[in-house]
Structure to design on (209 residues):
């Protein structure tokens, strides 16, 4: 997982650890089990710690991640593309995992950002309750707003466990969403260049995750 701790902005109105553990005990009883039995006795505390990690994005300011940029690029002004950023999120409708990969591209305007920052921005938004459409827009809009490049493109392909472990039980199906801004939206040649660079995506992991 990408470490986002240095960009933490804190959280307000968060229930206490004890309130969270009590809520998990209620859930265990609702499911039909006994939270006081040995195997479940420490589960509420473990789940609370796990959720703090899984949803750390609520404490992160994604824009702050992009504040440091570099201009010593010898005039480089072509596309920057970071492919296959692993995305781990949770569907806000059923609270089950969304597992996939994001492709993030931008056309720099004199300055560039460290490539790890693109992954950090994706992670900051993914570590929240999400729908994939909003996640795609949030990543693209933040990069566009902070870096002010000539264009931004974000394409996400993900497997939704709400589709494979419940409901219609369609194992192997994936969802693709995209957000094109600036030159990627307005210039067909720029879009074609992006799609050409993405012709060899690593999709093998999506079907098995």
């Amino acid at each position: 997982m990408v470490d986002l701790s240095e960009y933490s902005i804190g959280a307000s109105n968060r229930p206490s650890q004890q309130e969270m553990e009590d809520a998990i005990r209620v859930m265990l009883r609702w499911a039909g089990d006994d939270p006081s039995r040995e195997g479940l006795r420490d589960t509420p505390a473990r789940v609370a710690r796990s959720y703090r990690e899984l949803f750390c994005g609520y404490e992160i300011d994604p824009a702050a991640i992009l504040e440091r940029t570099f201009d010593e690029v010898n005039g480089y002004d072509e596309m920057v593309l970071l492919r296959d950023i692993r995305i781990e999120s949770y569907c806000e409708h059923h609270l089950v995992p969304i597992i996939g990969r994001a492709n993030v591209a931008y056309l720099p305007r004199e300055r560039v950002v460290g490539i790890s920052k693109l992954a950090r921005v994706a992670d900051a938004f993914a570590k929240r309750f999400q729908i994939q459409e909003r996640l795609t827009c949030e990543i693209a809009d933040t990069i566009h707003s902070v870096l002010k490049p000539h264009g931004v493109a974000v394409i996400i392909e993900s497997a939704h466990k709400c589709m494979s472990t419940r409901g219609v039980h369609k194992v192997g199906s994936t969802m693709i969403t995209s957000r094109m801004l600036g030159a990627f939206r307005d210039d067909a040649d720029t879009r074609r260049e992006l799609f050409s660079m993405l012709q060899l995506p690593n999709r093998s992991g999506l079907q098995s995750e």
